[in-house]
Amino acid sequence: MAYDKELAAAIKAASLAARLCRGLCGFQKVQKALLQSDVRSKRGRNKSPVTVADYGSQALVSFVLQQEFPGEFSLVAEEDSIDLRKDGGGEIVERITKLVNESLTSDGSYGVSLSSEDVLKAIDSGKSEGGSQGRHWVLDPIDGTKGFVRGDQYAVALALLDRGNVVLGVLACPNLPLTSISVAHPHSPNNEVGCLFFAEVGRGTYMQLLDGSSTVKVQVSAVENPEEASFFESYESAHSMHDLSSLIAQKLGVKAAPIRMDSQVKYGALSRGDGAIYLRFPRNGYREKIWDHAAGSIVVTEAGGVVTDAAGKQLDFSKGKYLDLDTGIIVSNQKLMPLLFDAVRASLAEKAKPQP
Ligand SMILES: Nc1ncnc2c1ncn2[C@@H]1O[C@H](COP(=O)(O)O)[C@@H](OP(=O)(O)O)[C@H]1O
Ligand SMILES: [Mg+2]
Ligand SMILES: [Mg+2]
Ligand SMILES: [Mg+2]
Fold this sequence. Notes:
Blueprint: H1 4-22, E1 39-41, E2 49-51, H2 52-68, E3 75-77, H3 90-107, H4 116-124, E4 135-143, H5 145-150, E5 155-162, E6 165-177, E7 193-200, E8 205-209, E9 216-218, E10 231-234, H6 242-252, E11 259-261, H7 265-271, E12 277-280, H8 294-301, E13 305-309, E14 329-333, H9 337-352
Parallel strand pairs: 3-4, 10-11, 10-12
Antiparallel strand pairs: 1-2, 4-5, 5-6, 6-7, 7-8, 8-9, 12-14, 13-14
The site of one magnesium ion has 3 residues, from β4.
EC number: 3.1.3.7
Pathway: Signal transduction; phosphatidylinositol signaling pathway
Enzyme class: hydrolase
């Protein structure tokens, strides 16, 4: 109702972007054939990877949203064109432009071909700072770039903020198996893959195939006994402290080994009950960005789950690009959350104690 048009546009934009990421080189499993030259390191201290697909996805989503909502438009997105505009960037920009135009042609709705400059401008229209006033789109064009490059999980994550609250979210997950992933089969290589989750505030969470078919309503796991719960965490130990998660899991009585996976696919998998807990504890000094959690958090909360920081506070998306939070992010169902919260507090206190 309230956001139907926005939700439809978000699903369209994220699906097209997922097709671009998949189609980099033919058909599924595309990202395995990424060329070395398609992957760059970003400027700055942490030199995180970025690929032609990250840029292409951002340009495409930005273009589609601007076509659907001409007039007032605000987008907070991860990438920018600064590195692309440097000397020697021409070739990669041409490759991105080709990818974007191929995706637009395959869709056929807009009947335009973008120039390289149009593509750079579309990427740069993601420079909004967000905040607590008005509406802002929030985009991670490829969340889990390291997973994408490795041939594992990644997501196109798009959300809408209205007066600081996330009101809708879409997670396109091209490599997520349609059936439940488990500790035994985290990758399910023979299973059909490609899911899209969408949620609108007050209206629940749904999952469909990436082609838009087979829509089903999803719910988080109803597991109440921690011994039967399994938990997700980042694949990358640099992104989340695995030793702390394992201490928490041990205090809680979780028996299963962690399911390590890249990106907000973890939130999608949790929303359909593949696991019951997601633990994320970045190392000291790291500041979480809103595009890494906006879509995922509404997908989980509308499926009946709870997403808080380590102090039990709801995530606040109204403060600009960064989330201002206590220590980490914890996600679970309503029943398990009080136990999880106690285990988190006890584990953090134990870790803070001076070692004998
Ligand atoms: N040192 C760090 N600690 C925590 N998160 C980090 C990090 N460095 C990068 N990230 C974020 O972790 C995200 C991936 O999450 P995950 O570990 O769940 O796969 C990255 O998103 P991108 O891949 O979009 O850059 C990036 O924003
Ligand atoms: Mg990144
Ligand atoms: Mg990200
Ligand atoms: Mg990203």
